[in-house]
Amino acid sequence: MSQIQLAQPSAAAATEDVSAPVDLVALARWMDENGLESGPVHAVSRIGGGTQNILLRFRRGAREFIFRHPPAHPRPESNKTMIRESRVLAALASTGVPHPRLIATCTDETVLGAVFYLMEPVAGFNATVAMPGQAKESPELRHAMGFALIDGLVALANVDHEAVGLSDFGRLDGFLERQVGRWAAELESYHRYPEWSGRGELGDVHGIGAWLEQNRPVGMRPGIMHGDYHIGNVLYHADGSLAAIVDWEMATLGDPLMDLGRLLSTWPDGDGPPVLSMRVDPSTGFPTREALIARYAKKSARDLSNLPWFEILACYKLGILLEGTYARAQAGKADPATGARLHATAIALLERARQRITSNREKVQQ
């Protein structure tokens, strides 16, 4: 695309938008140094989402940008996470995986106080925010949207992580062996909040962990994992195809079947409470979990014989993670209403894990 030639202004001419949570003057100065358009940073708007990271859309010169930065009070690992996110986006540029295109990364923390990066905007909609036009009216289109989720997941799982320069992006040795212990320790760590009511309402969490340890698959076919793959972390084109997979902060190397397990863990199938839902409206028309699995089996060469293990692990892991918000909420460190909602979801997820264990045992005995 040709760019409009503008007179080169001072970086100090950047719009002083008092609502912007970052220094736009410093941002414009850095963009000047890296040849990223010219003129004022303007039309700044904040993009909402399920993360505390700062996500902005703005214009400069003839181009729009998406800006991603850690929260105002960064967590200890925030800068490392930003670098990893931008690295995986850069690696995916040569693949068929739909993703936001990386423009540039700033690792100099003196510019804005933390690592940040710029991406190309993606034209698309998030189904958990609003179903527009035909997507809201057509069950057939929503059916295609469900299959598009699987197609994106298969495309990611098929990427040769070594060929795209991500051979050191995660520790593959002992990956599956580490999972249960890691999340069991996370649950135990919530006792640091004396106000936490404990694991009583969660049921027999230890029993789920014991089953996972006893039935762990032998070996795996490694690949790139998104880490939190669900319908709220993708954007769709109007025709129901995937425009982009977003929110890569948990990406790593491991077994890509964990992403499929994560998707299935909250996919409604009639055997769980309403709290386990995709959080989309309307939700009719989407494929059943059985249809999603069949699609994955058709599109991928991966062995799905151990898929129940991965779904049960996903329920176990996600349930424990969500309970952490509840523990923080009871300690006055998170929103009480959000904590209560996620606590209910954690209970439902762990109950689903136990149901899946029972179903799996019955199948084995038949």
From TrEMBL:
Ranges of residues in domain Aminoglycoside phosphotransferase: 45-279
UniProt KW Ion transport keyword: no
UniProt keyword terms in alphabetical order: Plasmid, Transferase
MF term (GO), any: transferase activity
Descriptive protein name: Aminoglycoside phosphotransferase
